[in-house]
Amino acid sequence: MLYKDELSITIANNQQFDQFRLLKLKIDDLRDGSVNPAVVASSPSTFSYVADELEKLNSLQERRILSQQEFEQQKAKLLS
């Protein structure tokens, strides 16, 4: 049975799934203080660049080109 409410989402393909996961990473970073919301709001093009780079890093990690440690180090550089 498929449940739908205001908290449900439907993911139709892998691209949407990847985009959802990236969005979740961004939200988690905002929640834990890794990213300053004021910086995000004041420079959307910078945020877009960082989001794109995080997506690339995530892809490299998933393909095992980057280790978890390397991913975290590069992510920290981007978010600082």
Shape: globular
Helix content: over 70%
Strand percentage lies at under 5%
- Pick out the low-confidence regions: none
Mean pLDDT: 76
* SSE topology string: HHHH
Query: What's the gyration radius in Å?
Result: 14 Å
Determine the structural class based on helices, strands and strand pairing.
mainly alpha
Total number of beta strands: 0
Total helices: the number is 4
Question: In whole angstroms, how far apart are the ends?
Answer: 44 Å
Biggest sheet record: none
Summed up, what is this model?
By secondary structure, the chain is an all-alpha fold. The protein has helices spanning 14-32, 37-42, 44-62, 68-79.
Question: How would the blueprint of this fold be written?
Answer:
Blueprint: H1 14-32, H2 37-42, H3 44-62, H4 68-79
Task: Please characterize this protein's 3D structure.
The protein has 4 helices and no strands. With 80 residues, the chain is mainly alpha-helical. It has a domain at 44-80. Helix 1 (14-32) packs across helix 3 and helix 3 packs antiparallel against helix 4 (68-79). It is globular and about 40 Å long. The chain starts with 13 loop residues before the first helix and ends with a helix.
